[in-house]
Amino acid sequence: ITYTEEDGYKVNEVVSQLMTTNISLDGKETAAILNSLLNSASKNIEFMNQSVSFELVQIKYVNITENSCYFEIMVKIDVSSLKEKMSFFPANLIAKYIPDNLYIDSNVTVTKTSTPFEYTVSSNYLTINQLDEEGTNELLTTLNKFVEVGNVEDFNLQIGKVFVDVIIGNAEQKGFIYSLKDAGATDFVFSSETSSIVIVK
Known about the structure:
Strand order of the largest sheet: 4-5-6-7-8
Largest sheet: 5 strands, antiparallel
Number of strands: 10
Helix content: 25-40%
Mean pLDDT: 82
Distance between the termini: 19 Å
Strand content: 25-35%
């Protein structure tokens, strides 16, 4: 993983050899890997029943124990094209109050099970732009009256689990960490000391 002012964080291809030590990834390094993986795939997410592009802004590991952590991810979604589709009454009355760019902060809990590479994901909270949790809930409730968005918990899980699956993965959902199994990875843990996820040799 390298960094330059011009290109930001970049991930070189993983060398196909056995791991010699544990690998620790903090939030910035995880974001670099995710961006690298997503750059080679379709960077879209479902919002208001439409597929929209997004930009990964930030990842953090907080409230860490050895077997669980809060996985916090912020994405920027351009919804200007969706607002144009809200031209019918009365949706057009609220469309003008929705910013063209939504900064969505998704916070989910990732909990390891006793089986290597297995985990569960549950919703904690989701906020949009400068709104608090209550304001975000009111916004989505209002939007649901005109276009189907879904409730806060479902929307939060939809966003958070996508990124967790891409970075960790398992036998059903191949992710970055699980892909290192053939190179010697045996599991993963969370480190409160370094605020990171650790790929265990």
